[in-house]
Amino acid sequence: MTLQEFLLGLQGPGLAAAVGVALSFLIDAWKGYADLSSVAKRLVFAGLCVVIPALAMLAGIGLGFQEFSMELVWSVLVAACAAMSTGTLTHTRKL
């Protein structure tokens, strides 16, 4: 896998895996994470879902793999929303 393929994967199909890995490291490194409310934990998760593909997009633009366009921004936002929705649906308690 090339760096370009890796960065593109973080903007789409690989986003959920990247968020899971980042969240695992965050939970281990931040001892106060366990004390957060469920709402705060979901906000951390949602933030990672937006920040990771945005950074991958900026890296791709900076390295010349991609050109900035609103279509690119939109695709990153769609990937972020899909990852957030999937994570929320997977971990929501039964009502």
Mean pLDDT across all residues, rounded? 87
Oligomer: single chain
Shape descriptor reads elongated
Number of helices: 4
Radius of gyration: 14 Å
Structural class comes to: mainly alpha
Helix proportion range: over 70%
Number of strands: 0
* Largest sheet geometry: none
Spans of at least 5 consecutive residues whose pLDDT stays below 50 are none
Distance between the termini: 42 Å
Work out the strand percent.
under 5%
Order of H and E elements = HHHH
Structure description:
- The chain has helices at residues 3-10, 15-29, 38-62, 70-91.
- It is an all-alpha fold and 95 residues long.
- The longest helix has 25 residues, at 38-62.
- The radius of gyration is 14 Å and the shape is elongated.
- The chain starts with a helix and ends with a helix.
Which characteristics define this entry?
95 residues; mainly alpha; 4 helices; 74% helix; elongated
Task: Give a brief description.
74% of the residues lie in helices and 0% in strands. The chain has four helices and no strands.
